[in-house]
Each structure stands twice: as structure tokens, then as C-alpha cells.
Amino acid sequence: MPSFRSTRGGDPLRSEPLRAAARPAFAHREEPALAGALDVVAARARRRALRAGDPEVDTGHLLHALLETDDSALGVAAPLPMQATRLMGYLVQRSIGFGRLWRFGEGVADRERERSAGLAWSASANGALARASRAGGTVLELLRELATVADSRASEILRGAGIDPSAVVQRCRTQAADRLSG
User: Fold this and answer.
1) Closest by CA position to 117, among listed 176, 52, 67
2) Does residue 10 lie within any of the structural domains?
3) What gap in Å lies between CA 48 and CA 167, rounded to an integer?
4) Number of domains in the chain
5) Which of 72, 74, 149, 154 has the CA that lies 20 to 30 A from 85?
6) Helix/strand/coil (H/E/C) assignment for every residue in the chain
7) Count of beta carbons in the 10 Å neighbourhood of residue 180
């Protein structure tokens, strides 16, 4: 069984590394303006980053939030049962420790604390959300955007689970075309 280690030498389930000098130019303090399903995914990704103690929301947080928000996205990202199991197992590794505790304390006060926590959005996460919103605002658009950027944490997670990000992009396009024609 292949290892789930990062190809860049770090933990793929941690935030994308940012050079200290580059961070102010790439970090976005303002959350992108979103509606519908993308807003739900962004809120869940923000909570994931906050719970993990990460300084910013990145594409890995978005991917995890997307897959837990929409079941059909998992089928597109990982069409084979073995792929789906590996992908979700890979993502769950970090959330198992604090998931139960968070659910008991979740509520309005927690959401207010999140807003004031000052989490930034990585440039790749911010860009993926903005492009997906412009392209129609669906979860499949966001999945496609997350898989499009080869060096993003989301693509790294997909590869770590044995899933080719370019195949995910193609499946997203096929699904979108099928929905338009059918």
C-alpha cells in the first residue's frame, strides 16, 4: 500500500507552507463573498482550519469540507470504492481527535469566535473559491478548481490517496456536461 506522505516532505494535512516574506501578499484576510453550497463549504473549511490551529484556510480544508458537504462530490473525486475509502481515511486522520468535542460545543458563540480569529485564506483557496463562484457556484465547479492546481494541498491529498487530479478535473467536466444535456 502506498504511503500517505507528502511529496514535498511535509504533512499534506497541514497548511500549505508560505514563505514569511510572501505571506502578506498571498494571504487574504477577507473571506470571498459566496452564496449557497459554496458558502456552506467555505464555513466548514474555516472551522476545520480553526480547529486544527492552522493560521489560514487552504485547499486541503476546502477539499475536506466539500467532500463532507456533498456526497456526489466524493463519487466524482473517487469513483472506485477503494479510492473513496483511502481518500476519506486520509482526511479523517487529523479530524478524529477533535471532531467529537467540537460538535458538542458548536453554535453561535463558536461562529462568532471563528469570525474574530483572524484566519487568512491561502491564495490558492481564495482563487479556487472565486473561480468556482464565477463558473456557476456549484460544488463540482469547486472540486474541479481544487484539482486543477497541481501544486495545491488539495491535489497533493488526492495524489496521496491514489487519485489523479487531472482525472478528477475531467470527471467534473463530464458531470457538468451531462447535467446540461440531460
Assistant:
1) 52
2) no
3) 26
4) 1
5) 149
6) CCCCCCCCCCCCCCCCCCCCCCHHHHCECCCCCCCCHHHHHHHHHHHHHHHHCCCEECHHHHHHHHHHHCHHHHHHHCCCHHHHHHHHHHHHHHHCCCHHHHHHHCCHHHHHHHHHCCCEECHHHHHHHHHHHHCCCCHHHHHHHHHHCCCCHHHHHHHHCCCCHHHHHHHHHHHHHHHHHC
7) 7
174 located within any domain: yes
Question: The CATH number of the domain where 145 resides is what?
Answer: 1.10.1780.10
Whether the Cβ atoms of residue 39 and residue 106 lie closer than 8 Å to each other: no
Please tell me the distance from the alpha carbon of residue 134 to that of residue 129, in angstroms, as a whole number. Answer: 9
Q: How far apart are CA 92 and CA 140, in angstroms?
A: 21
Per the prediction, the chain carries an average pLDDT of: 78
Which tens digits make up the pLDDT trace of 116-172?
A: 457 899 999 999 999 999 998 899 999 999 999 999 999 999 999 999 999 999 999
Q: Which three cell numbers stand for residue 24?
A: 502578506
Decide if 17 is inside a domain. Answer: no
